[in-house]
Amino acid sequence: MAATYERRWETRRERARSVSDETQDSYYGLPVVHKSHWKWAVVLYLFLGGIAGASYAIASVAELVGGRDGKRIARTGRYLSFAALLPSPLLLIYDLGRPERFLYMLRVLKIRSPMSVGVWTLALFSAFSTTSALIQAAQDGLLGRDRAITRLLRAFPARTIAAVGSVPGFFLAGYTGVLLAATAVPLWTKNHLLLPPLFVASATSNAAAAIALILASSRGSSQRTLNRLQRLGGIAALAELALLLAMRRNSGPVIARPIEGGRLGQIHHYGVVGTGILAPLVLQVIATMRGVHARTATMLASALTLAGGLLFRYVIVFAGHASADDPAASFALTRRAAPEPPVGQSDRRGHGSH
Prior knowledge:
Layout: H1 19-25, H2 40-65, H3 67-85, H4 87-96, H5 99-105, H6 114-139, H7 148-154, H8 158-181, H9 186-190, H10 195-217, H11 223-255, H12 257-260, H13 262-290, H14 294-325, H15 327-334
């Protein structure tokens, strides 16, 4: 008699297959999707690009509504934005491998391509950031007081340019989350709605900390100016913490494994959340209650925030690599629940993926 074979996943009375079953019987434990090639160059690009975009936006808002304190913040934010922006194209070109690839992406704008939109946003924002930095330098007399270029730059509508440039600036701070989510990497695509606002919150917190660190290191800044930056950074840090918790809950136990355990999990818990978010908030509270030197506390809290921001981007990039290498994460992302049985009929199939 000829042997008959029955495919296990079509057996009605078999229990629901778990993610571990899928991993054992499919792909032999091999990755289902290809991980990205992104390394430290992209981590630094995400960090510096976020600071560049957010600090420019903070500077623009501060100049419009900040009064005398706002002018100090605006001046520092414009210079910081330009300084953080300078390495960004170089890091992106280095990651692409060949400079002509960067120029090739500028030949056409593809709205459906996050990479194409990102490159064009970087180019557009570079024009605004550079122009605003030059205007600020002319106003500060750094380009000479009676030169034609100085008179020309001072005639530019600085506030209008800053207001319009804030749009691509904020977009630059958050589009990296869209870029990550537009992949098949389980950790990133599962949180496609959370990553953009998470990157915006982190970039705002980092930019406020960087501006505060620069002002606290100088003698001309007042404590009131630093306090305003600390409040902004604290609000952004709390939003970042809430979004990180939401990402962990939304990912589930399987997809969230890279940020829950192992070396990356420790960096996430103690470096990103502990050092970068909670420690600066606690430090500011202690400084206020016990009268610790406010300027020193601001500098320390800002440095911790910046360290946590860099670690966050390191964790999110390399945790994505680990998520792509884990076939169980891919199966957990794509599996669907079986339909509910008719009322009154016992469900012997379970509710897993068959």
